[in-house]
Amino acid sequence: MNLTVSCTSGAGAIAQLRADWQALMQADDEAGLFQAVEMCEAWHADAGLDAAQLRLLLVQHDEQPVGLLPLLEQGGATRRWVSASPRAGLLACGDRDAVCRALAGWLQRQAGRWDQLLLDDLRPAAARRLQAALMQHGLATEPGRPGGEEAFISTDGGWAGYLATQGPHFRHRLKPQTRKIERLGPVTCRRHAGSQAASAYDEFLRLEPRSWKAAQDDTRLPERERQAFRWLIEHPGSVQPDLLFLDVAGQPAAAMLSLAHAGCYHLFVTYFDDALRAWYPGRRLFLEAIQHGFALPGTVEISFVGAYPFARAWATGVRSHVQLQAWSSSWRGRLRRWASTRQAPLEPTRPLPVPLPVPPQEQPHA
């Protein structure tokens, strides 16, 4: 099987490969939201210089696309090639092993241009195939490290079938906990999709200062992600955003940003007024969002994107992702790999003291 690999870079790289990218999304049955071309476009829409550092590796067979690995070149002491956008992963169809071998061969031939390859949150099967191909071409790889986890609900059986799988304890608590917010006044839900979502996005962001997420820098929505979501809302395509608001007595108490793509409904960002925590506004919001996901035509899965405890309580399954790391065979790559091992923290020479037990504390409800 004769495969060729080409590298497209620069500010117009995504637009140049859009048709091939979309064709691969249709052909790859393992592809998901994060591999969509719109996700990469949104991530780089306002990034400026980052667009010039894109390295989109396209694999072709008889001039037909069979694989795509979107990368971003990062400078510094270690020249890293990383996923072009969060969880961008690898697109492939047909003989996936051959696609991985073609990519590994190209990376080996370009060993002088990079030191480290770092891909986050790959599906385990894709990580194994690519790691094997890299090793076949003499590139050093690190053992696959655990990546992120994703809790999800399978919509097989509909809403009634889902409730039946959750057990009596879940069903017994569902109604009183999701209706507690009604003690504060009339509760209504409003959904903004399409052009309406763009006009409601600023209202959604204004809930963050009232949320528990505003208390810590690491739980606030980073500015780059704010801009990426705004771009997706303003440029709907295969990714369809919507905003769900939970109003109490006419005032927004909670809101959620969701993205629908290829039969999967992704529950992305949630805010709720922390002053109303005792009335569980987040639980009512999740109930409304999940029921909407079940009602959406063609939806086969509802994803929580992460696997935080609240998501696990609703989920019917959790899938894991893997981080893949490889090093260039050039002298510089070997040197940087050696330096990375020298910088690793030393193992303690004696056992650490056993911490005293800490009383459990209640976690945020959403």
Notable characteristics:
disordered C terminus, alpha+beta, elongated, 14 strands, 27% strand, single chain, 366 residues, 34% helix, 14-stranded mixed sheet, 12 helices
Globally, the shape reads elongated
Q: Please write the string of helix (H) and strand (E) elements.
A: EHHHEEEEHEHEEHHEHHEEEHEHEH
**In which range does the helix fraction lie?**
25-40%
Secondary structural class: alpha+beta
> Mean of residue pLDDT?
90
Strand residues, percent: 25-35%
Low-confidence stretches: 345-366
CA gyration radius, whole angstroms: 23 Å
The total strand number stands at 14
Largest β sheet strand count, sense and barrel closure: 14 strands, mixed
Task: Tally the helices.
Answer: 12
Distance between the termini: 50 Å
How does this structure look, described?
With 366 residues, this protein is α+β, with helices and mostly antiparallel strands. 34% of the residues lie in helices and 27% in strands. The N and C termini lie far apart (50 Å).
Task: Summarize the SSE layout with pairings.
Layout lengths: L3 E6 L3 H4 L1 H10 L9 H8 L9 E8 L2 E11 L5 E4 L7 E2 L3 H14 L6 E7 L1 H13 L3 E2 L3 E10 L3 H8 L1 H13 L7 E7 L1 H11 L17 H12 L5 E9 L2 E11 L2 E9 L8 H15 L5 E3 L5 H6 L2 E11 L3 H12 L24
Parallel strand pairs: 4-6, 12-13
Antiparallel strand pairs: 1-2, 2-3, 3-4, 3-5, 6-14, 7-14, 8-13, 8-14, 9-10, 10-11, 11-12
